[in-house]
Fold this sequence. Notes:
mainly alpha
Amino acid sequence: MSNTPQPAPVAEERIELKARAVSFAWDGTPLHWIPGDPFTGHTINVLHLLLPAGERWFVHVYKQVLPYITDDRLREDVIGFIGQEAMHSAAHDDVLPHLKKLGLDPTPYTAQVDWLFEKLLGDRTLPPGRARKWWLMERVATIAAIEHYTAFLGNWILNAQALDERGADPMMLDLLRWHGAEEVEHRSVAFELFQHVDGGYRRRVRTWATAFAALAFLWQRGARFFMDHDPTPGTGRASLGRFYRAGRSGMLPSTPAMLKSIPRYLSRAYHPSQEGSTAQALAYLAASPGANGGR
């Protein structure tokens, strides 16, 4: 348990976390699901490459940390989190065969992502005791840092009206917003778990730097992979300039907003409940076709 003063959460009703049975059909979704803007679509498509392996890894690590949880309420939240993350992984994994059917085979890139989570960040042969616990706590802290950005992205997609205005595919938007809403719904769990089992500020900063660098590298690499392998002539190449301009137009998260999220996470007063709106997330989940049997 950390001796660091605990940040105060925003007061709100506690939500019982549960995995929702979702249903999405991809037959009608085109490769360029944002009309006339393959770059933005492919930049968002990187989620389908990263999340299946990443969220399987989350689940694997959290099953290992369950014995360290002494707070019954937090244990329930972590179990609910595990269920939601497993469903996210499966839902995004289901998109990949559709992309391959449309002529864009993601296998070479997903193999690299699998190696990162299963080998580089996977279990290590360490002696029982301090060394093994240290590696577990490093990964718990890394997940807390990643979840800061998944909550940031979840809040963004729930409010990204520019995508609707450009005629983005409704099925893909529903998948992204269902997932984003659940990220906002459970945004406090990973950080509160880290605070409960460790909470060291230096570890929080160190693992944030690792997570941020890895996500930035993987995302730009994934966007370039999609653009370079898109079977449609004339799609161009991925670039930071295109990313910045898409952010300014509201089609992607803006660069200034992402940069401003960094000091929030590194603040000693940070708590994830300060990000996003649980009420907005629950309202979307209540209305989502995919999260309500495809209605």
